[in-house]
Specification:
Layout lengths: L2 H12 L17 E6 L5 E6 L9 H12 L7 E6 L12 H6 L4
Parallel strand pairs: 2-3
Antiparallel strand pairs: 1-2
Length: 104
């Protein structure tokens, strides 16, 4: 796979991870801040946040992201970093997420 194919696969997999308290995937919620592949396409770094710093499901969600991304062929390292800068707000959600949650 080339870089674009891997990045598309990453996004497809991220769209299968849900916060159990919200019926929208983490990608469309705007919780993914950075997706970066190294030059030889073996290491993936993902920065993500939670809707609130005190999210009780944070560990579960991060582990779900890591496990799904580790299934991508060719990756030897997957780093999922929890960050809180910038602070998440509802404007980071996709139009689909806002529609799903009745915010449009």
């Amino acid at each position: 796979m080339d870089k674009i194919q891997i990045e598309e696969k990453v996004i497809d997999l991220l769209k299968t991870v849900y916060d159990p308290e919200i019926p929208v995937n983490v990608y469309d919620l705007g919780l993914i801040y950075r997706i970066e592949l190294n030059d030889d396409l073996t290491q993936l770094d993902v920065d993500m946040t939670m809707t609130a710093p005190s999210c009780p499901m944070a560990d579960f969600i991060i582990e779900d992201v890591r496990q799904k991304l580790e299934t991508i062929e060719g990756l030897t390292t997957v780093n999922v970093n929890l960050v809180f800068e910038p602070e998440w707000d509802k404007d980071m959600m996709s139009e689909e997420a806002k529609l799903e949650l009745g915010m449009l």
